[in-house]
Amino acid sequence: MSDTSAFSEPNEASFGDYFALLKPRVMSLVIFTALVGLLVAPGGVNPVVGFASILFIAVGAGASGALNMWYDADIDAVMKRTASRPVPSGLVTAGEAFAIGITLSVMATVMLALAANFVAAGLLAFTIFFYAVVYTMWLKRWTPQNIVIGGAAGAFPPMIGWAVVTGGVSLESSLMFLLILTWTPPHFWALALFMKEDYSKAGVPMLTVTHGRPVTRKHILAYTVALIPVSIGLGLTSIGGPVYMASAVLMNLWFLKGAVAIWRRPEDVASADKYRVEKSFFRFSLIYLFLSFGALLTEATLKTYGLGGW
Fold it and tell me: What is the helix (H) or strand (E) element at residue 209, kind and residue range?
């Protein structure tokens, strides 16, 4: 377990500091993809049940964030990007972060089971376990494939949303899962390219640290290519349609263009912003995911009025 004794004497924390434990920016992506999974699922659900389910999924995502900050306090303290987080900055104790994470995990899982069904609740519980234990405690510190396997934690939310409505798993929800799973490595490796020193200093075996930037660039291109058939395949299912397909084709071409630019970029670029290509790719990767799920939501809305679908 990580040594968090250095963070046991906090300054006075505010509500905002405790809220920051829940990783609100990550939570927003979880909420959005889970909501899309719920809204595109066949049959629909009572609005009250739907709202409650998304709320508990969000709480579960926040619980994962708190447990991650509890365990990773030692790593966060030496990385510029994370040093100001509540635990390493001394605003919240590691013990408080752990207690909040465990309490919210149990509450979110139990309440989702009561509000929706046991399949959705089981998927949420497994997601929290996967992120907090499999990824944070094991993969992140052990293998350069940490983000490849660990990305599954961020890929479950649309599957959970789908299960809230249908009580099960389907081809459509599995492809939404695969879309996020395949998107995650190039997204995070682009970040790692211009944050390599942070990961190296913290002893995190990110691919950029263990294999170097040239190998990482090749992996980004490979996973971007692998993402294309998943994205297009999703458009051929019952939740796809011409709007989604047109969006997917354009976004994948742009994403591929960025990956090729990263792959081709020489390592010894001398400029004020030498990682401009990587930073641009990273920013677009966020847009890519939001637009992909936004296009699915557009298709569902059009189908409601008899206008969408194949």
Answer: helix 207-210
* DSSP of 174-185: HHHHHHHHHHHH
Angle subtended by helix axes 47-71 and 94-115, to nearest 10: 160
Q: What φ, ψ does residue 2 adopt, rounded to 5°?
A: -70, 150
- The Cα-based distances of 278 to 113, 217, 259, 274, 286 in angstroms read 41, 10, 9, 9, 13
Q: Is residue 47, in this structure, part of any structural domain at all?
A: yes
- Tell whether the model's pLDDT for residue 9 goes beyond 70: no
Has residue 1 been placed in a domain? no
Share of the chain above pLDDT 90, in %: 78
CA–CA separation, 205 vs 200, rounded Å? 7
By 3-state DSSP, what share of the chain in percent is helix, strand and coil, each rounded to 5? 75, 0, 25
List the domain range (segments joined by +) for residue 299: 170-310
The whole-angstrom separation of Cα 215 and Cα 90 is 37
Q: Are 147 and 183 a contacting pair, CB within 8 Å?
A: no
> Token pair for residue 226?
């692998």
Determine the longest span between alpha carbons in the chain, in angstroms. Answer: 60
Please count the other Cβ atoms lying within 10 Å of the Cβ belonging to residue 243: 18
The token pair that represents 105 in the structure block: 């995990």
Q: Model confidence at 11, in pLDDT bands (50, 70, 90)?
A: low
pTM of the model: 0.91
* Helices and strands per DSSP (H, E), number in the chain: 16, 0
| Residues 155, 242 within the same domain | no
Nearest Cα to 30, choosing from 106, 82, 108? 108
Contact 104, 125 (CB under 8 A): no
- Do 26 and 138 share a structural domain? yes
End position of a domain, from candidates 134, 154, 169: 169
Contact 68, 20 (CB under 8 A): no
